[in-house]
Amino acid sequence: MSDATVTLQTWLATGIVLMPVLAGALLFARRESNAVAGLVGATGSGLSLALIVWLLLERAQGVRVVWEWVPELQVVLSWRLNSGTLAIAALVAFVGVLVMQFAGAYFGPSAKGRRAIATLSLFEASMLGLILADNLFMLFTFWELTGLCSFFLINTDADKRDDTFAAAQQALVVTVGGALPMLLGFIYLASVGSASLTELYALDLPIRAQTIAFLLILPAVLTKSAQIPFHFWLPGAMAAPTPISAYLHSATMVKAGLILLIYLFPVCGGTPLWTLLLVPIGGVTCIWGSYRALGQDDIKLLMAWSTVSQLGLMTLTLGLGTDLAIRAGILYLFAHALFKAGLFISVGGIDHAAHTRLLSKLGGLRENTPALFWFALILSGSMAGLPPFAGFLSKELVLEKLTLAAPLVHDVAVIAIVLGSIGTVAYTSRFFFGSFTGSPRSEEASKAHSPGLGFLSAPAVLAALSLVFGIGAKWIDRWFLEPVSWSLVGRPIEAPHLALWHGITVPLVLSAGIVTFGWFLYRRLAGRGLPPGPEALSGPILFENFLSLSRALGDRLSRALAGASPSVYFGLVLVFGLMWSVPLYGKLGDFFTHQWNFGGSLVLFVQLLAIAGLILLPGRLTRVLLLSVVGFTVALLYRLLNAPDLVLTQLLVEVLTAVFFALAVRFIVTQESPSPIGLSSARLAVAVPLGLAGAALVFALDAEPPDPRLPDFFLEAAPTIAKGLNVVNVILGDFRGLDTLVETVVVILAALGVGGLLRRERSGRETELKGSFVVRQLTRLILPLAIMLALALLLKGHDAPGGGFVSGLSFAVAAILGFAAYGTRSFRARIPVEPDRIAIFGALILIAASVIPMVMGEPMLTHRHGTLSPLGAFAIKWSTTLFFEIGVVMAIAGGLTAAAMRLWEMTNTRRDGGI
Amino acid sequence: MSLALFFLLPLATGFLLFLWQPAAALSRRTSLFVSIVLIGWAFAITAKCGDGEILVHTFGNWPPPFGIAFVVDRLGAIFITLHALLLFVTLVALRPETHGEHTVRRALPLLMVATSGLFGAFMTGDLFSLFVMVELVLVSSYLLIQIPGAKRSLVSAMPMIVINMSASALFIAGLGVLYGICGSLNIADVIERIGGAPHGLRLAALGMLVAAFATKAALVPLCFWMPATYPTLTAPVAALFAGIMTKLGVYALLRISPLLGHEPVLLSFLMWLGAFSALLGVLAALSQYELRRLLSFHSVSQVGYIVFALGLHTVFGTASAIFFALHHSLVKSTLYLVADELERSNSSRDLRQMDFRRPGSIVLATVFGVAAFALAGIPPLSGFFGKLAVFWAGFGSREWIGLALLVVASVFTLASMLKIWRFAFQRRPVERETVPTPISTFYPAAVLMAAALIVVFSLAAGPIFNYVFEAAEQISGISGLMSGDR
């Protein structure tokens, strides 16, 4: 085969799927009348059909890769072309033409017809894709898309009735839920074999693998093809308009599960579970569907249950798991699609003619709708399995195959099929005679008019085909069934020829018995309804219960997950974080062997007392003070460790913290002081083990020899390369300047945020609060000293204890002192710029200090150093870190002052009195 | 173009806007311009990293591990691009006309500063400076929460601040221990040295980090702060947060995942945490009626998928986690933007009060459909590929129970999306003839852009997965992960 042919066939195959998509897109985009919309939809399907026929005539064979979508996940868009896949596609497209045309008539002038037909076209495209896809994951994709389209289509009448959403949701959730295990099954197949069906056919998987794959894929088959216990969504889906039910829920989509079974038969048909599971499930579905169909008054629901029953029959047949059974299943699949689509459309015609679908109101329609009567007769005959229609032929074939199966399976299957078929004859009779014969049971039925050509053409065509199918058995066998089943099973099948008359055989006798008993059953029941079975086992109710149970569970869960008090969550975070240190408990023994430093132990003891007080003592201010004790003693620890910079910083931070606490405490509205936290057993149960874990962690860490690389480097490089004697300061300003920059920005934002946090409170009387005369005089003395200290800390910081951060804190303390003494208004008058602006300028200086080296071609935050010796007399060291530090000072001092001032002013407007 | 500019440009923009305080429209235009520049740069470095280059910027010329370096590999480039795109969409959605002059003016500089923090976090090669960057992001987010100024936003900020503070405390404590046993916090250096570190301390240090990041990523049961907070944020900001903020925790976990290889118990811990989050989060979502609260519980669930894949600790699992994270960011942001439009046009946050007959609801319904079905993993949208990848990864590692949990979670995800559909977009029988007042503030630009991003992402899933797979190989290359058996 030439490359050009392959390319052409690839395009043709893609075109099959694209045509309905184009039709759908066109209909979404343009406002057309429903009749035109039906025509557009039918044309789209017709073009697909034409392309399929073209490919069939070309005898296209093999895989055509279109697009490697996600190669790593083995998702490849490719088509599998052979007479089998193309024939099923042809069926879908052909019924599509008829249904679209019918839909155009059915929707009349209703506004939503166009959109429904557009969605129907998209559904058709998905269905065709499902049938033609070679790649399992693309098959899955199209599978889900059919379900999605079905959701929207069932919902078509949402503006008229309340039950559509529940039905649509049920259908979608059930089928998607079933499909997820299938996705796992596909992954499994792809990992043990291949994601391409064609390649899988060439492999011979071990039985174990076949079984695993089959079990994973089975739920998808059962849900999509409405097998018990997942069948309930299908009758519910009848909330959809009739064309949709005809197309999706009888002729095509519900067959997807069976099509998948046929496709997978060569891959995992070897597992014994294939028969052991499919036959009983199919059998039960077949019988139960028949029984429920018998009890329906609404003929559309009757058809829906009949579909369930016949899907069960097909599952059972395929479940027999022989080549012949598959062949029979394929034939039944086609026959069923023809007569069931025709019957659904006839139901639509009856509904249109008599304005009712209830058997209790219909009757005698033959008078007014003779054409429909004759078409329905043929289609019903086919469904009941009467000769010479397609249904007879296929049912014969099914019964014939049974004689070849294993004995026990055979018995089960025969019983199921016979019972199901008796029911079929009975409900078909009920539908047909109840609608068309007798006398009308309501006024509407007596005044029925013959539906127009739009309602009749589809049943006519389908009825004719059902007839041709049966009469032309010989040709059907040769030109259709043989090539199709051979290419689907992947090997030639030795089978007796199809014929209407084989002589008197077991199947024929069974058929005769079925018809007789069925007729008898129909006469006995004579229109009486049958009980639907216990409500507790009703699918829709169970489904709704399941959903509401999940919702109730979720409600509890959401309250547990997001409703408790922050302290619970705090504990939880700590548990999750510290539980990993529990294995270190062994290190707690170091408590006794550790060389305790006396001063350090004393400090720790004081801290312990303070913390005990925090837990046991009441009162807000007490706690603030005790927290300060802890903070100041930490500074003492730093002193013991010889870290003057840290001592300075810690002290200043503590001072400021105390100030902020004192200011903020006033905002807490409740006057009563809080009771002690206390030692509840729950708290202890969390705190004690975690505290021990923390202690163990510290002991363990203490026992580890420190890694000298970084300290050594810093000690060496600080004075030599970075030209600074204060290593701490060099680390902050140079080695890790970026961290300092970011943390400074964090402080600015936090400070600016104080204004935002309490923004709503900013209104009220404007009385200014300031210190007494003595305070002001003292401040006048202290303030210059404080400012000078802060300046010194900044300028000398590179070599001696100090630095930008400490200096900024000192400035902030000085400023707070200043506005506390003079009042914020006069303080503002004395400083040139608002403090928060100073902070922002500080940030911009930091950014400038970062950018300038970059302009000069160096990395961000690269500093330069040197010595300036004016007159050669004395040398002044300079460093660009100073510029950076100035930014830090401005940011910290400005930010903290701004925040403190805001709190101060707000305190002022809330209550009178001094500090 | 230097890496440092990624950090400096948004920071400078933020502070200039603080200082200058221009009108909202001008401020917005400036920010939009900056974000376009950032997108351009982001694509440039993504292309560079795609060629296998690792971009480095050493601060102050100090060689690592002594100084700090920005190190951008594929993983970093991916997250930078993601954030740049989301920022742009957010800025498009955040209009003075719809969200108020005041809100926009206050939010923009903070968004810019948060952006610089995020970029810094995605670029830094040093764990301490990662901590600092995360703090910058958090402090900006605290302030962003305050913007609506309602009492609820103040109240809901409490748990977020308390919990994130405790997580930060664990983070820094963990770093302290890590420094003690490795002698530096440079990521590459730590990866090299952690093998020789004592087991007990290593577990303790990494355990603290894992707990901290799991809290920030909002996994069950550490997620409580998120559903309380996100619904109160200004909606487009919430969209950005939902998209990227929880991913910061995920990103950090991805970064330290080579370390976690030494303590497998932490990996299985993460995997189980992820699987249970996936299920419990979506169950909690199912019961919600407040749209954004529902969505934020969803994030808990979806992050669960990501962390599950990450916990598998295979190259394929890591790649799936990255891919899923990207997908989820786009989709969740889109859903929040749709939620914003719905809330404004219905003047309600409650699903039960919503009505589909509003201007623009067809467009909105389409966008919502794309995003919701993507989230539910319906093929061929991005979520399907994400889910497929995670399933592949789980399959490769034979984690059947975890997989089963994810499968069940998937079904509920669909159910909860249908719930939104039902209330917000479903046609309903016309019983109450209250003609809805048409509200003309529907600006489709942002939601359409977001939906387009999802579609492009889905179509380009192949090359994108290829890229993230290489990213996963790159970050694990230095660690000896198990080879990526699928």
Characterise the protein shown here.
The complex is a heterodimer of chains A (915) and B (486). Chain A contains 36 helices and 4 strands. With 915 residues, chain A is an all-alpha fold. In chain A, a hairpin with a 4-residue loop joins strand 1 (62-70) and strand 2. Chain A starts with a helix and ends in a 5-residue tail after the last helix. Mean pLDDT of chain A is 88; it is low at 760-765 and 910-915. Chain B is mostly helical and 486 residues long. Chain B has one domain. Helix content of chain B is 75%, strand content 2%. Chain B has 19 helices and 2 strands. Chain B has helices at residues 3-20, 24-50, 74-93, 96-99, 101-123, 127-146, 151-182, 187-193, 199-216, 225-229, 235-260, 264-286, 291-312, 315-346, 361-375, 382-396, 400-425, 444-459, 461-477, and strands spanning 55-58, 69-72. In chain B, helix 2 runs antiparallel to helix 3 (74-93), helix 13 (291-312) packs antiparallel against helix 14 and helix 15 (361-375) runs antiparallel to helix 17 (400-425). The chains are: A mainly alpha (915), B mainly alpha (486). Chains A and B meet through strand 1, helix 5, helix 6, helix 22 and helix 23 of A and helix 1, helix 5, helix 6, helix 7 and helix 9 of B.
Rg of chain A is: 42 Å
How many helix segments of chain B? 19
Q: Order of helices and strands of chain B, N to C? A: HHEEHHHHHHHHHHHHHHHHH
Largest sheet of chain B: 2 strands, antiparallel
Oligomeric state of the chains present here: heterodimer
> Helicity of chain B, in percent?
over 70%
Strand order of the largest sheet of chain A: 1-2
Range of strand content of chain A: under 5%
User: What is the typical, i.e. mean, pLDDT of chain A?
Assistant: 88
Which spans of chain B have pLDDT < 50 for at least 5 consecutive residues?
478-486
- How many extended strands of chain A? 4
Structural class of the helix and strand makeup of chain B?
Answer: mainly alpha
Strand percentage of chain B lies at: under 5%
Low-confidence stretches of chain A are 760-765, 910-915
Tell me about the largest β-sheet of chain A: 2 strands, antiparallel
* Mean pLDDT across all amino acids of chain B: 89
